[in-house]
Amino acid sequence: MKINNYKMRNLVCVIFLLLGSAFYANAQKAFPYECGGVAESLNAYWYVVPIDSVAWQKNSSTSYFYSVAHVYGKVPEGDFSVSVKAFDSNNIFFTREIQVSEDKASNADAVYLAANGNFRIEFPVNTGLKRPDKIEIELKSKEGNYKKTVSCVYHTISGRITDFDGNPFKGFFRAAPDDFPNSISVWADNEGYYNITLPERSYNTYYSDDHTYGMSSLEYWGWRMIVDRDETIDIAIGNGEVYNLHAWSSNGGYSTFFLYFRPMVLPKALLPEEKYTSAINIGANSYNNINIAPELSEKDITVKVNGEKLDIISLQPVYETGRGSDGNFSMNAYLVQVERPKSSWGRKLTFTLSYDTYITVNGEKVRVNSMGNCQLYTNITGLSEY
């Protein structure tokens, strides 16, 4: 009997509801899930950081890099515990139990986060470079006991970090699964080459820089990156950012892609605040505009998909707006429209957007540049799928 994926997921959920406490063996996937079962929702990821990836000095602060595990699930009613067993070829090499009471982990080195009825528990794993091939999770609460075994899948992300003149840049590469601050980082070697093995899933951001952050450089960003195979991601570090880069297909219009990004450059950000802030009106509302973006033209920007350079059809200045404790604010951004070639149909796409230009700061011409990535899949006709 042939059952589509959607019906199969619903069937699994129904089976869970009928059986109550149950055992599931599953591969890793993005969290949270469509299925509502407590056991089905459990998942775990294991992130290994080499011992030489120790710390990052950023201005007056230090960020430490270390190996961690993340456990996810639906928040049960009341206090609960989560136990984890990590296996290598059916041999247990790591065990841990975390008690959660009043929305806090009782273990000092564990971090508990809850949002929208889901939780994530993070804790360090000091097991060297060993990675489990499966992780057993058990959640105990007054609602019941739930167990799941996760089959671990890993892929290696590697590449070279350089500056915009092609010189090696001994920076670090960071992968952030859900948000921004985390410890999952590795340093490149003296020639700028790096590699990191990550669990299969989607990642909120990739990030790269070194100790010169905020002094002579700003960070590289990769946005909504999908780790489902070994990939090469080469990175160029400049004194700007390609922030919040997202791409999507023009599903109901011309055969094009849109890319949105908010550029920021260090030479403008280091100016006194009054030099880059001003009051503007957008529609019927007033905003305090923070303009630390370079003024870009089509010739300053390069857009590639899977290494293929795309023709830029238009570049439109826009504003990203928000509301803070001090009122409305806005920042300068751009919307780029590019061709959608047939080579992009029905496959995974890695977009690379870079800019390299000159701006005038305090009467002097200054070179500013940056690059960023984002990823998505298209369906068989080239339209956005996920």
Overview of this structure, please?
This protein is mostly beta strands and 386 residues long. The chain folds into 2 domains: 23-151, Immunoglobulin-like, CATH 2.60.40; 154-377, Immunoglobulin-like, CATH 2.60.40.10. Helix content is 6%, strand content 56%. The protein is built from 3 helices and 30 strands. The strands form 6 sheets. Strands 15-14-17-18-30-29-25-26 form an 8-stranded mixed sheet. Strands 1-12-11-6-7-8 form a 6-stranded mixed sheet. Strands 21, 22, 23, 24, 27 and 28 form a 6-stranded mixed sheet that branches. A hairpin with a 2-residue loop joins strand 7 and strand 8 (104-105).
Summarize the structure.
The chain is mainly β. Helices cover 6% and strands 56% of the residues. Mean pLDDT is 88; it is low at 1-27.
Supply database-style keywords.
56% strand; single chain; 386 residues; disordered N terminus; Immunoglobulin-like; mainly beta; six-stranded mixed β-sheet; eight-stranded mixed β-sheet
